[in-house]
Automatic annotation (TrEMBL):
InterPro entries: Transposase_21 (IPR004242). It comes from the Eukaryota. Pfam families: Transposase_21. PANTHER family: OS08G0208400 PROTEIN. This is Putative transposase.
């Protein structure tokens, strides 16, 4: 879990791990007390909705929510045993604006881990320490992004990055009478 602190980097110009990314470095600069303890955990949250019975079957939706620790080395980061299914939201349709209701228990735990931390045993050093965690990234498709962020991903201002500078346009059509 401390790999990112002194991990072997072959080429600093290539991002081979999230620790190489500007977001990680900016986070460390913004929260130096968190960064001071390399065993503090940096997490990613991933979600994506799908229909388990296919398009032609009865309409049904599943939204798994995964949490991934990014402190691990690149060879372990995305391995199945280190990706944790935190929540499964089933239903006849997507959770939509209610996604935050389903995520509330996870958000409360993440908030507690950020503010207070939890007493944890470090087997390598054979000592306890107060481990904290932060959610650095969310990874999702655009509709799920809209649900996670509360941003409307439809219409003229659909892109939260472009905002009013969007080059979007409306196709004009003629109606035949």
């Amino acid at each position: 879990m401390r790999w990112h602190e002194g991990g072997v980097r072959h080429d600093n110009s290539i991002i081979t791990h999230p620790a190489d990314a500007e977001a990680w470095k900016q986070f460390d600069a913004t929260y130096p007390m968190f960064a001071q303890e390399p065993r503090n955990v940096r997490l990613g949250l991933c979600t994506y909705g799908f229909s388990p019975f296919g398009v032609s079957a009865t309409p049904y939706s599943c939204w798994p929510v995964f949490v991934t620790p990014y402190n691990l080395p690149p060879s372990m980061c995305m391995r199945r045993e280190y990706i944790f299914l935190s929540l499964m939201i089933p239903g006849p349709k997507s959770p939509g604006k209610s996604l935050d209701v389903y995520l509330r228990p996870l958000i409360d735990e993440l908030k507690m881990l950020w503010e207070d931390g939890v007493n944890t045993f470090d087997a390598w050093r054979r000592q306890n320490f107060n481990m904290k965690a932060t959610l650095l990234w969310t990874i999702s498709d655009f509709p799920a992004y809209g649900m996670l962020s509360g941003w409307s991903t439809h219409g003229k201002l659909a892109c939260p990055y472009c905002m009013e500078h969007s080059k979007s346009f409306v196709l004009e059509h003629e109606t035949d009478s």
